[in-house]
Amino acid sequence: MFTLEDISLIIEESDQEIMILHNINLQLEAGKMYALTGPNGSGKSSLARVAMGIYKPTGGQVFLNGEDITSLGITERARRGIGYAFQQPPRFKGMQVKDMLEYAFKYSDGVNCQVLRQIGLCPEDYLERALDSSLSGGEMKRIEIATMLAQNPKVRIFDEPEAGIDLWSFEQLINVIGESHRDNATTMVISHQEKILNMVDEIILMEGGTVSMRGDRDTIWPQIKESARCSCRRSCQMEEEIYADCPR
Ligand SMILES: Nc1ncnc2c1ncn2[C@@H]1O[C@H](COP(=O)(O)OP(=O)(O)OP(=O)(O)O)[C@@H](O)[C@H]1O
Ligand SMILES: [Mg+2]
Questions:
Q1: What percent of the chain has pLDDT over 90?
Q2: What is the mean pLDDT of the chain?
Q3: So where are the chain's domains?
Q4: CB of 210 sitting under 6 A from ligand 1
Q5: How many A from CA of 41 to the centre of ligand 2?
Q6: Torsion of CA 100, 104, 56, 196, to 10 degrees
Q7: Does residue 49's CB lie within 6 angstroms of at least one atom of ligand 1?
Q8: The CATH number of the domain covering residues in 2-92+153-242
Q9: How confident is the model over 180-210, as pLDDT tens digits?
Q10: For residue 182, how far is its CA from the centre of ligand 2 (angstroms)?
Q11: Could you tell me whether strands 2-13 and 16-28 are parallel, antiparallel, or unpaired per DSSP bridges?
């Protein structure tokens, strides 16, 4: 069980405190797949960063199978079996793709570089490529996902894995993420894609830095669609009122 208990995150910027996350309580079970969705800026990636130990929460605690890991950094959390595939994967000057995979294998039980084939890259072409800006956004994203597959962690968080992946490979990517899920693993996919939301057990909706809805896919997805339609109707209505006097 991966637990986020009463998480809050305040970031200071130009002498101002910005509340990014508040009152987040989530229990994520092993064997289940979750989708975390919500509007841009609602705090999904920030929550993933708190889970991975990149951001230290201002309040609250993080537990992995009952152990309080709040004070642990990224490396310790990776050792304990938490993996995060970034929304925008960082580039590492001086490192090659094979170095990254070797590093990931250290935490796994012996997956090989077939992971590159799984996500549609030829190991022969990519193992010795530099992990720098010479890789396209989509290639970098695939390597990030391959690294997660190699690491094979117990808690795996994919942050918008579909971003930058071409249409032809999208189905393949969904299958790979679905197939890589294990009974003893917790998978959380941050996504706006209906196809991804359709393959999970539970959907978690974030709005304004907090969890506003959570439940099984068949209950929550129709509610999200309806609330999106309502807010669209509301903003159209407001626009009509605001611009009522404008010459058309
Ligand atoms: N280090 C930071 N400094 C200042 N503001 C930040 C920082 N990190 C996050 N934020 C702000 O917190 C809010 C939530 O950001 P976050 O990246 O978590 O959103 P998101 O839900 O992942 O959005 P998206 O769907 O666009 O990826 C945004 O308004 C963002 O600008
Ligand atoms: Mg994000």
A1: 58
A2: 88
A3: 2-92+153-242
A4: no
A5: 7
A6: 100
A7: no
A8: 3.40.50.300
A9: 888 889 999 999 999 999 999 999 999 999 9
A10: 25
A11: antiparallel
Give the number of whichever ligand sits closest to the CA of residue 209: 1
Average pLDDT (32-61) is: 96
State the virtual CA torsion across 96, 97, 100, 104 in degrees, nearest 10: -160
Structure tokens at 120: 């549609």
Q: Does the C-beta of 10 come closer than 6 Å to ligand 1?
A: no
pTM score, two decimals?
0.89
Binding site membership of 204 for ligand 1 (Cβ less than 6 Å): no
Which of 17-26, 56-65, 156-165, 223-232 is the least confident region?
Answer: 223-232
Ligand (nearest to CA of 17): 1
CA proximity to 186, closest of 73, 48, 41, 14: 48
Closest Cα to residue 153, out of 125, 121, 130, 187?
187
Please determine, for residue 232, whether its predicted confidence score (pLDDT) is greater than 60: no
Ligand 1 contacts CB of residue 41 (under 6 A): yes
